[in-house]
Amino acid sequence: MTTRSSVNGQGWLLLLPAAVLLVTFTHYPTVATLYHSFFSTAKPGRPSVWVGADNYRTMVEDPVFWQVLGNNVWFALGTIPASIALAILMAVWVNGKIAGRGLLRLSFFTPTVLPMIAVANIWLFFYTPGYGLLEQITALFGLPSHNWLGSRSTALPCLIVVTVWKEAGFFMIFYLAALQSVSPHLHEAAALMGAGRWYFFRRVTFPLLMPTTLFVLINAIINSFRLVDHIVVMTKGGPDNATALLLYYIYDVGFKFWDAGYAAALTLVLLVILAAFAVGQFLFLDRRVHYQ
Amino acid sequence: MIATWTRAALAVALLACLAGGVRPADAQAPVELSFYYPVAVGGAVTKIVDHLAAEFEKENPGIKVKPIYAGTYQETIVKALTALKSGEPPQMSVLLSTDMFTLIDEDAVLPFDDLATSADDKTWLKSFFPAFMLNSQTGGKTWGIPFQRSTIVLYWNKESFRDAGLDPNRPPATWAEQIEYAKKLTKRDASGKVTHWGLKVPSSGFPYWLFQGFTTQNDVILMNQAGTETYFDKPAVVEALQYWVDLSQKHKVMPPGIIEWGTTPKDFFERQTAMMWTTTGNLTNVKNNTSFEFGVAMLPAGRRRGSPTGGGNFYIFKKSTPAQQAASLKFIKWITSPRRAAEWGIDTGYVAVRPDAWETGEMKRYVASFPPAAVARDQLQYAVAELSTHDNQRVTKALNDGLQAALTGTKSPEQAMKDAQREADRILRPYRK
Asked: Is A149 on the interface with B (CB under 8 A)?
């Protein structure tokens, strides 16, 4: 009995540092956010008061909120499948025995190493109307000039491209690691059976990569709600909120409008969305993934 | 044993309290001041500020000044207000003049009238260009002291003017001329694609500021001095927006969609546009980077000439000791003295904030060697306050969204301004008592 409780105690002691950090920086802020979302924002002379669901009612009536939420869905749909597909493609390619493999791997990984702010500034130049890189290329084909970041229809797709470019290399590393752990015997066996390359990829490689895909998918979803640096540099959410994402809007409300109550309510929505994804992935997808 | 320890601890605590209590009374200790400041233009501004602080300390041995570079204007106010909420704000800060209402509503700053009480101080308060004080005063009190201030001016490429058969030394003076010149300056290739635009007025980030150029020229103001009313849906405001929208949609002399603020000067260097509207703060940047002859002019007149002012003011934070407040006032008076104001203007490109700074020998020599430097000053007589209301950033965003919607063609100017006004009314209602 004594030994058991001391083992228990030791276990808790070992968990303590991590638990303290988690509680201080994750759990407590989450609970505090929930709490504050039911209060009005304190102003000098007007202390914070309980307003019930008022902040949430404001949210439902706030057209900008619905727009940024919609933008975020499009942003997620645009970035996640594309960056994962590209990551697999690149990983399979640089996993093969080709000349200059090291250099190729390095070049695919470079976007990940660069800071987002620097990347955004480079792409800002790519998209510049008139003399930007993209315009110089389209001009060669005689296409008309286009204001890429300055039109509602193309601004968000432009940011999606930047994000895919930035993320694919990072995801590639995980796929590359996974591919290298795939036993070469499988390949030999498949070759003996006369399986084509595409068939082999579809029936053997891809299923074996599923655990990695699940991990990458979670990361990609989180990133699609978390990445806003490039918005600050490239569009500031414009034109007319066309590129504002949920987190960017939370920053606006919290640190430009100083409306802490409403910002807390918005943050909670973000948390609920992310939590729903995490739970869904672990409970549902995890069961369908084959671990070796 | 425990009692001894407790007693010892108490004694130590008591000593600490005493020491803490004694220190401020010590006349020998220098007063320490820290101030946050943003950098919004190119150049080695941090070095200039550090140099000024060091000069001040040399002349005032009893005061230590610590300038803290805090990023952009937006980052600086975030840092200042966060520091305030955590209980330790800086004693002074340079923040946007338009943040005045926000700072008052947060109960963060002191009016200068409370501190500047001597006759000398009162003359000093009256020594600035009146246009700059519009954004610094409300309710009969002065809350900010103009420091790094600017207006919008027109830059034009003299070579392009010559090529288009225009007089290179005569910029457009009216709205009609602006369109007429821009039409001549816009060049298209055989397929009809524009290779060289007539005019660029940036519209990313803070389009409301440039829009105020158009509205002022159309002889209408956007808000009241108390910061509780906006007039976005007035016919003259809609008309001003129509003129801006027409530049690209009807006259096709400006690129359609949103024009990026940050790359507009580069578009000008790269000969992508013959004329541009931007801040005087870019003057040094343009001077150093153009390979052609350029001119700087006041913005063209509609019913009248006009531009909003822009830029930053000095604020004194409430949460500081009387000694610190007095020292802060001393520093701000020093840094805005004619000599220092002239020095600051020449080094950065900002408009020296008081008329007598322009009478100093240094400034006179500078203007003689580089006449465009005086354009912004001459325009001040036509300048109005930059848009500033209670809950400023939110109201401004409502207007920005409307402007961008109209410029990208999603809403008609009338609809866009109606929507912006409705949103502004909703936000400002609690402030109208």
From this structure: yes
Smallest CA–CA separation between A50 and chain B, in Å?
18
Across chain A, mean pLDDT equals: 87
Residue of A nearest to B400 (CA): A240
Q: What is the C-alpha separation between B155 and B148, in angstroms, rounded?
A: 20
What is the interface pTM, i.e. ipTM, of the complex?
0.79
Verify that B161 and B243 share a domain, yes or no.
yes
Do B161 and B62 share a structural domain? no
Residue B209 Cα, gap to closest chain A Cα (Å) = 15
**CA B200 to CA B154: how far, in whole Å?**
10
Residue A91 backbone zone (phi > 0: left; psi -120 to 50: alpha; other: beta): alpha
Q: Which of B92, B91, B97 is closest to B146 using CA atoms?
A: B97
Chain B residues in contact with A145 (beta carbon < 8 A): 193-194, 255
Give the pairing type, strands B307-316 and B273-279: unpaired
Under 8 Å between Cβ of B276 and B285:
no
Contacts of B80 in chain A (CB under 8 A): none
Question: Any idea what the CATH number is for the domain that residue A246 is in?
Answer: 1.10.3720.10
Q: Which spans in A128-228 are helix H?
A: 133-140, 152-180, 184-192, 197-200, 206-208, 210-226
- A200 occurs within a structural domain: yes
Among residues A108, A135, A67, which one has the least CA distance to residue B193? Answer: A135
Residue type, B43: G
Residue A204 at interface with chain B, using a CB cutoff of 8 Å:
no
Instruction: Convert the pLDDT of each residue in B88-112 to its tens digit.
Output: 889 999 999 999 998 998 889 999 9
Per-residue pLDDT tens digits for B33-54: 999 999 876 667 888 899 999 9
**Among B28-37, B97-106, B114-123, the least confident range:** B28-37
φ, ψ of residue A41 to 5 degrees: the values are -80, 130
Which one-letter amino acid corresponds to residue B142? T
> Is A66 part of the contact surface with chain B (CB cutoff 8 Å)?
no
Q: Taking chain A, what is the end-to-end CA distance rounded to the nearest angstrom? A: 38
Closest residue, chain B, to A234 (C-alpha): B260
Quote the CA–CA distance of B217 and B242 in Å, as a whole number. 13
